[in-house]
Structures are given as C-alpha cells and as structure tokens.
Write a structure and sequence with these properties.
- GO terms for molecular function: DNA binding; ribosomal large subunit binding; single-stranded RNA binding.
- InterPro entries: HSP15 (IPR025708), S4_RNA-bd (IPR002942), S4_RNA-bd_sf (IPR036986).
- Belongs to the HSP15 family.
- There is one protein chain.
- This protein is 26% helix and 20% strand.
- It is α+β, with helices and mostly antiparallel strands.
- The chain has a domain of 79 residues: Roll (Structural Genomics Hypothetical 15.5 Kd Protein In mrcA-pckA Intergenic Region, Chain A).
- The longest helix has 11 residues.
C-alpha cells in the first residue's frame, strides 16, 4: 500500500488520496493546467516525492496539500488523511456566495423590465 521507493504519478496520487473521484478526472485536471507541483504546472505522468506541494483547483475551490506519504492504490479516507498535510484556505460560507436570480422554467425570455431588474441586481449600468 505505501510505496516510498518507487515513483508515483501525480494523477494517480491525487486520485489515491481522494482529492478527485476518478483518475481520469485527475488526469484531465493536470492536462487543463489545474494542478501545480511546487509552483510548476504538472503533467499527469509527473512523479511525486514526499515534501512536494500540490495545488489542485477542483470543484470550484483550491486545495493546497503537502505530500507526506506516497500511495499507488486508492486507500480509505482515514489512511488518505495521513498521506498529506492540508494547507488549503478555508471554504467560504454559503452566505458569502452571490445570490443568483432564479427564473421559473418555461417563463420565456425576460422582458425589458425583467432585464433592467437583473442589471440593477448585478450592478451593471445600461449603455
């Protein structure tokens, strides 16, 4: 389970410690530039060592973790928590997120009055 000698791919490690749900999502995040290892953009096959800092932007937030143990296979949550030190910024509370206006499904296009109200809520001034 724990492999300290052999190198581990960054996409495999991200998936193994449960930062992403699937390995393909981890590889896609690497290819899209959402994964950085020690400040440098990481390709999926890049190898990790203990002490490396991994920054992952996933699911709308940034995770900053420092590798403490290398694992090759997916492990349970208690073991995964021991494999890294989480230095991520705290998750903002839901109240801080901007409120989005909700229109009824099938209500059609907004009228001129509706658009003006939407612009007023967004703080956008008309031209």
């Amino acid at each position: 389970m724990v492999e300290d000698e052999s190198p581990v791919r960054v996409d495999s490690w991200i998936w193994s410690v449960r930062l992403t749900k699937t390995r393909s999502l981890a590889a896609a995040a690497c290819r899209a530039g959402h994964v950085r290892v020690n400040g440098e953009r990481a390709k999926p096959a890049q190898t990790l060592r203990p002490g490396d800092e991994v920054r992952l932007f996933h699911a709308g937030r940034e995770r900053v973790v420092v590798v403490s143990r290398l694992v090759r296979k997916r492990v349970g949550a208690p073991v995964a928590a021991e494999c890294f030190v989480d230095n991520s910024p705290p998750v903002p509370p839901r109240e801080v997120a901007a409120a989005v206006g909700v229109r009824d499904r099938g209500a059609g296009r907004p009228t001129k009055r509706d658009r003006r109200e939407i612009e007023r809520l967004r703080g956008v001034s008309g031209v």
